[in-house]
Amino acid sequence: MGRGLFISLEGGEGSGKSTQAKRLKEWLESQGQCVLLTREPGGTPLAEQLRQVIFEPAAALDAVTESLLFQAARTHHTTHKILPALAEGQVVITDRYLDSTRVYQGVLGEKSVAWVDELHRLTAGDVWPDMTLLLDIPAEIGLPRAKSRGDATRFEAMDIEAHEKIRQGFLQLAAAEPKRFVMIDASKSLDEVSAQMQAAVQKLLERGDA
Fold this sequence. Notes:
Largest sheet: 5 strands, parallel
CATH topology: Rossmann fold
Distance between the termini: 10 Å
CATH superfamily: P-loop containing nucleotide triphosphate hydrolases
Number of strands: 5
CATH class: Alpha Beta
Mean pLDDT: 91
Strand order of the largest sheet: 2-3-1-4-5
């Protein structure tokens, strides 16, 4: 059995990642694929506990502490859930992965992306998604969407300038790694966004990268 495919969904708040991740899972399963859908921070009981710490509204975390907590959760998630699923030949879809830390704590937190990457290499090894679907949406559209859910985290409480900086950070990563990133226009309807993602993943499957 060959190695499975590792797909991450990235984007700013309100870009629809969670909804589209579920839709992508259902579509892949309809194509006969065995799929693991997971998220970050989270994915294992320990990582979910760390998620609660990270998202605690009253938490006053500096960029370094935040990065270390995210990476601790990611390392456990990668080691105990993602890699075993890939070894079984499954398609793994994760709602956020390393690129979120590269942007939120690297770009926005004023740590370098290289620093975040080295932390990942030292703790989780050279594990990167085969494809990253970047659900891009202007902050002035995505942020109200996120806040309308009524369960806003402290990240969503940041001002719109911070969210636009996050968007630009993701766009910079995508421009630097065009072979891994696929741009998805998340301002479109649910069905149109799903169609964009399915077309991109279909090409990945046809390349036989698994």
